[in-house]
Design goal:
The chain is of the alpha/beta class. It has ten helices and 23 strands. Helix 2 packs across helix 10, helix 3 runs parallel beside helix 5 and helix 5 packs across helix 10. The longest helix is centred in the N-terminal third of the chain and has 20 residues. Bound molecules: manganese (II) ion (MN) (2 copies). One manganese (II) ion binds next to loops.
């Protein structure tokens, strides 16, 4: 056989991976760059699940979505949404086929790792005022010191009113910080293991230093802070007991690299898939099957709770749609398919040894199809069927969407999960499809513009 024939045979038989940027046209790269401007705006505005839900609903309402009404009559092409306590939202575009033909569901999450204030957070020590926090989701605690933080959330008062808080995002607004020990005095700290370099109870946020002007008395800095909070938000210290306040990185998203091909920013896991799922369903007009895009809360802490996808929320949405449109919910779910839109770990050139190169996802190689996540012997995952993976594979290739496969690290290197298994438990076919990320769960995460755009294209192709 000639060298050329061998080469030809290899091309025919081998699975060839190639950098997506070498496969697409200049025009498509430009389209991807343009799309990501909207994405950067989204993640700079929506830094918590509440803010992401609110912004998504306002974008959807502009695109004709209305709150679902159990007693309304719906027809193909109608656009509805279900808001679950303002933290999880499901958007649906009614399909031409009945509910029993099944639905096409995309599911991303809009909560991200962060630092929640404790119910009783405020104290003064060494003439400084601080907040005690309890971290939310999997974080490397040391990464959260000495970076600017902003405060987001709500105070819910006893009279039923809610006060929204967002401080540290707009130009000129004050920000907050967790102080770290100086290297000159870290002899003891440096002996700690990585997990304990900064301990959970050391994640205390500096919030002020100005004492209330008085001749004597203790806690005058704390008193002055409460006076300011009372003037601004009408709250007292007791109102922290029924608040949800979150400290998040205050940095704005930005382009990364001389070539601007990458995006840096907080909360990209998983708003980097939530924004594509959202914008895709906004672009869906008259699908054959009813399309549903769900943006969920609580994924980072295991999806438990009534706004997580381990609740019956999605099941109840499908029940409601069956009630309004007709059809049996069991049949509807059994015939439904889902893309669990969540991120995967991209192979990092500096930490290659946690990845298995044949099965790791790479930045710029497109949206990642992850057949299973989990840990150890595939514990804690839904492991999509070969039949369903074949269907999704065909869909992606037929639409010329750049995609790759991925595994969450080497076998036994660690692991993780997504919402996929909770949706699979409803009898739905599910596979993970999302964007590869570097520095996942760090205060500042990295993605590629091409991958983000390919995620949008995949979500649209699936639901259209
Ligand atoms: Mn995620
Ligand atoms: Mn995560």
């Amino acid at each position: 056989m000639s060298q050329d024939a061998v080469k030809e045979l290899k091309e025919e038989l081998f699975y060839n991976k190639k950098n997506g940027l070498l496969k697409v046209s200049e025009k498509e790269i430009e389209t991807a760059n343009g799309y990501c401007e909207g994405y950067k705006d989204f993640i700079s505005t929506a830094k918590t699940e509440r803010e992401a839900a609110k912004l998504s609903i306002s974008m959807a309402e502009k695109s004709g979505f209305k709150p679902f009404d159990r007693n309304a009559k719906y027809k193909a092409g109608d656009r509805v949404y279900f808001s679950n306590r303002g933290k999880t939202v499901a958007f649906a575009v009614i399909g031409k086929n009945g509910m029993e033909c099944g639905t096409n569901i995309t599911a991303a999450h809009i909560d991200s790792p962060r630092l929640d204030l404790k119910p009783n957070p405020l104290y003064e020590d060494t003439d400084l005022a601080l907040f005690k926090t309890h971290y939310y989701g999997g974080i490397k605690k040391y990464q959260w010191t000495a970076v600017p933080l902003s405060l987001h959330g709500v105070f819910c008062k006893k009279d039923g009113s809610t006060v929204e808080v967002s401080l540290g995002e707009k130009d000129g607004e004050p920000q907050f910080v967790i102080n770290d020990l100086l290297p000159h005095l870290d002899k003891e700290q440096s002996k700690r293991t990585m997990a304990e370099v900064i301990k959970g109870e050391e994640l205390n946020v500096l919030i002020g230093s100005m004492p209330f002007k008085a001749d004597e008395g203790s806690d005058l800095v704390k008193l002055n802070i409460l006076k300011l909070l009372n003037e601004k938000y009408g709250i007292t210290e007791e109102d922290f007991l029924s608040a949800e306040l979150e400290m998040v990185p205050a940095m704005k998203p930005c382009d990364l690299g001389f070539d601007r091909s990458l995006i840096g920013g907080y909360g990209q896991d998983d708003r980097v898939c939530a924004y594509p799922a959202l914008t895709a369903i906004l672009d869906v007009k008259a699908p054959e099957k009813t399309a549903i895009a769900i943006l969920a809360d609580k994924e980072e802490i295991g999806s438990d709770g009534n706004t997580g996808l381990n609740s019956d929320f999605l099941y109840h949405c499908v029940c409601d749609l069956c009630y309004a449109l007709g059809g049996d919910v069991t049949v509807a779910l059994r015939n439904s398919c889902c893309l669990s839109a969540d991120v995967n770990a991209a192979m990092d050139p500096t930490f290659k040894d946690v990845s298995e190169p044949m099965n790791a996802s790479l930045v710029n190689y497109g949206v990642v199809l992850t057949k299973y996540t989990g840990a150890r012997g595939k514990g804690g995952t839904s492991d999509a069927s070969a039949e369903y993976v074949a269907k999704v594979r065909a869909m992606l290739d037929n639409a010329n969407i750049i995609w790759q496969t991925g595994e969450l690290g080497k076998v036994d290197a660690g692991g993780g999960g997504t919402v996929a298994m909770y949706i699979a438990n409803l009898g739905v076919d599910v596979v993970d499809l999302g964007v590869p990320v570097l520095s996942m769960h760090a205060p500042f995460e990295t993605t590629s513009k091409l991958d983000v755009y390919m995620c949008y294209r995949a979500m649209y192709e699936f639901m259209k």
